[in-house]
Amino acid sequence: MITRLLAVVALTATTACAETVISARYSAPTDRYAHGILGDAIEWGQLDITTDTGTRSFALPATRVFEDVAPRVVDLDRDGTPEVIVVETLASEGAQLAIYDASGKIAATPHIGRTNRWLAPLGAADLDGDGLVEIAYVDRPHLAKTLRIWRYQDGTLVPVADLAGLTNHRIGEADIGGGIRDCGDGPEVITANADWTQVMATTLRDGRLQSRAIGRHVDRGSFAKALDCASLP
To answer: In this structure, what are the phi and psi dihedrals at residue 36, rounded to the nearest 5 degrees?
Structure first.
């Protein structure tokens, strides 16, 4: 049986498509999923999307939570109407990256496959200059430590490339490190290496990921400097 999201506000397809997403937030804190990867046992049970006509709220069933810091509002298809990127977790299958708009959930990656397995988003950009937007995240930043790139294309998420040995989160941290920068030569994904000794910049070219060390990792300030295009020791 397919579990369906329960929309708190009923929408017709015509109304939803006419709305422009302005912002999004999580609400309905819950302790029903005791993973605690972000430092406490509280996750989120509802996504509230504010549009130019009102607020649309999407409550998850008891088997799911939003296991995340904050939703990310990005125009993934470059049509002038943003979408919302979230981390959605099914208790028995772990996390997935999901995309919402004013009508609800419209695309998602597969769940990782088992409980207490998580992913940490880095951001979204046209990483390879092909005119389409890619989304970057680290799959299991404490275990697999694998950067994964998915492309948003024709309303679906398509896998593009993976690279092991990179991470952006340690167990118990309340935020998610790293991100995407462009210092003049195109977008680069900023993470740490697997043992947290170096800050890494990774590019996507011809469907392949290439990574290089750009300086020593000390703390979150190292990521901030890298994202600001400042030199690192």
So the answer is: 70, 25
Please state, in angstroms and rounded to a whole number, the distance separating the CA atoms of residues 106 and 77.
Answer: 12
The rounded distance, in Å, linking the Cα atoms of 154 and 128 is: 17
Rounded to the nearest 5 percent, the helix, strand and coil shares of the chain are 5, 50, 45
Which residues are CB-contacts of 229 (< 8 A; sequence separation ≥ 6)? Answer: 181, 183, 184
Residue carrying the six token digits 């970057």:
136
Please, are residues 66 and 80 in contact by the beta-carbon 8 Å criterion? no
Predicted model pTM:
0.91
Name the residue among 199, 197, 182, 140 with its Cα closest to residue 164. 140
Closest of 72, 76, 81 to residue 18, by C-alpha: 81
Rounded Cα distance, 63 and 74, in Å: 27
What are the beta bridge partners of residue 190? 179, 201
Q: How far apart are CA 135 and CA 226, in angstroms?
A: 19
**How confident is the model over 132-149, as pLDDT tens digits?**
999 999 999 999 999 999
What is the enclosing helix (H) or strand (E) of 14?
helix 13-18
Instruction: Give the pLDDT confidence of 164-187 residue by residue, as tens digits.
Output: 999 999 999 999 999 999 999 999
Cα dist from 191 to 88, 104, 180, 213, 214, whole Å: 22, 30, 9, 10, 10
Round to whole Å and give the CA distance between 93 and 147. Answer: 20
Are the CB atoms for 192 and 178 separated by under 8 Å?
Answer: yes
Can you tell me the distance from the alpha carbon of 115 to that of 61, in angstroms, rounded to the nearest whole number? Answer: 16
Note whether 86 and 47 are within 8 A (CB): yes
